[in-house]
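Handout, section 4.2: multi-component inputs.
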Amino acid sequence: MIVIDSVEKIFNQDTPQEFQALRDINLEIESGETIILSGVSGSGKSTLLSIIASLDRPTSGKVMVDGDLISKLPDYHASKYRAERVGFIFQHFNLLESLNVEENILAPLITSDIELPRAKEMVKRAMRVASIEHKSKSQIRELSGGEKQRCAIARALVREPNLIICDEPTANLDRENSIKFIEIVKTLKQEDRTIIIATHDPLFKSLDFESRVIEMEDGTIIDYE
Amino acid sequence: MIKNSTFLHFLTILIFKERVRHIGVVAISIVIISLLTSVLSLSSSIERTLQSALDRQPDFIISRVQRGVTVNTPIDWIDKISQIDGISDINPRVYGRYEFEPKGKSFLIIGVDFFDEINKRDLKELLDEVNLKEFFSKDSMIIGDGVREFMSEHFYDNSFSFKTPNGKFRDVRVYKTLPKETNLISNDMIIMPIELAQEIFGMGEGEISDISFNVINNSEWDTILTKIYLLFYDVRVTTRDEISKGYSSLYNYKGGLFLILYIITIITFMLILYQRYSMVLSSERRDIGVLRAIGWSIKDVLRLKFYETLIIIFISFILGVVISYIYVFIFDAPILSQIFLGDENIKNMVSFRPVVEFGTLSSIFLLYTIPLLASVLIPVWRVAVTSPKEAML
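Output:
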């Protein structure tokens, strides 16, 4: 369960460029729940995701994940949390261009104590789930947008995290690939993982599986479904 | 420490995939390391050879001084010195430089008493191969390799005509050439009977260049010196320590060159550091941000870069050292040997005695490793500590 309690985020605090991205966010997300964070660009969706993924810290308030306070973790523990418990899918995929698909998916396992044969098995499994197995040896620059997306999904899933966070996952995809992505999300949902998706893609408003839409505007939650 | 096989696998992949980017650093590193190693190996080899020559030097050398200039020493000084208790191995020496005026070159002529026990000991290896009867039957000389080269260039293959100070020419036959391995000391050397050397230098029979002797009991050195100064008023005494210092100032380039090379190395690394900064600000900065975002800690990123750089350093170091040893000890360090030994007189084709100094190699390794690691890890650390989101932008 994720508990977000009175979270605020101010960028460039006490400078002329000061900007408040989040204002008094309070939210509870049950384990296995699928959340669609909706809202226009600049509404604070990505900032909220970053805080839940411990990529950023709130200016005030706290975030608890399964009872652990993750909003004030020191670097080592924050990294460990991201590596073991969170799978993050970025809007721009953020893949390592110098490596091929398989090597990109292997990257999150390097910091673990998992030996190579087991790691390779895990990579294969993640590629199978994301339907990118056939491109395992391809270089990133050779992939289409949809394939890059599936590579990013496999990388997010390789350590089998319970929490999947997706930031505008279909923003760079065509309709066909967006639907494929939703199918993958549906599979993950069936595996009882908690999924949080920030998007303004209307496709997510009519999902054929149970999800909760949360509308954000100007750094605040304006509507719960 | 390398965590496991997965880490090692990933490290190997990264190095291989980014090999083009590493080539520049490896190439610069090889040049710097091989240059440093060549200079230090050369200087160590020269130092060792000279040290072995120095070990054979007498404890004291005395010569006559007039008007502040060393002049010929009367041979009867030997009788006077031999009266002093504690002195042994007294030996007259005749030597000097013979100027080959037309070319502005000179040879070092050493007159040797071949029947003297001390000389025999010093020249043991050589004298074992010399048939003394044949050697003395005609006026003969033993010459260094550089002298042989020079003479044959000027059509003196088997003998040479020395011009004495009274204008007469003295033909001396070449009996033997000294081995090339001794070139460092003997390149411009001519060894001949002491009487012949006296004649070529125009010295009287009772005159010699100087007198060498040993004092077995080191604690008596000061007492002996006092007695020498009481015996002669126009004497200059040179001790073995002074000879050693003379050698050091002549050949100990090590300190100076090492310092210069160190400065060059540091400047190069500063440039690499600067270049590294620029690179980190672009694609590498983004990659570090991605790794951080997918769960790598700052320590994990630094560990990866540390081992990556260390492997590059090892490859560069091994290649640099191997190249330098081939250059110095197989090809006899062309150009560099001339800088060290000078070729303003007779060209010296030295074969250097192979020397491996682990202390020196370790110093080069550290001198190289620490700045390079710093030049990589500091910028990487600066990126790693920023927010992964910012780094990925």
